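haha ok so turns out i had the wrong file open the whole time. this is the CORRECT one, sorry everyone. sequence first:
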Amino acid sequence: MSYRQNHDHDTLISQELLALQQKALAQQNEMDRVRSDNVKLFEKIKFLQNYPGAKGAPPSSLDDMEARYSAQYEQKLDPFTHFNKKVWCCDRYSIVWL
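then structure:
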């Protein structure tokens, strides 16, 4: 394999790697968005379950979902957890909250 062919092959592999990394990042962002949506839906379900006049117990299918999203919902309500997720970003001239 000549230098030129080797360089072209490396460039192609680098491009494929970059494309895969971008795809993985997009999938991670989508997963985070869906998880956030699920926590918001769980919050609405909890509100409706506790709404005056709500009838009966929740269906058993909600038990699995409740176990899955209950901890995330509780963390969302905890102001200390929310505060601790803030990150200080410091540079020479300013401090910025992210």
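The first helix runs from residue 3 to 50.
again sry for the mixup
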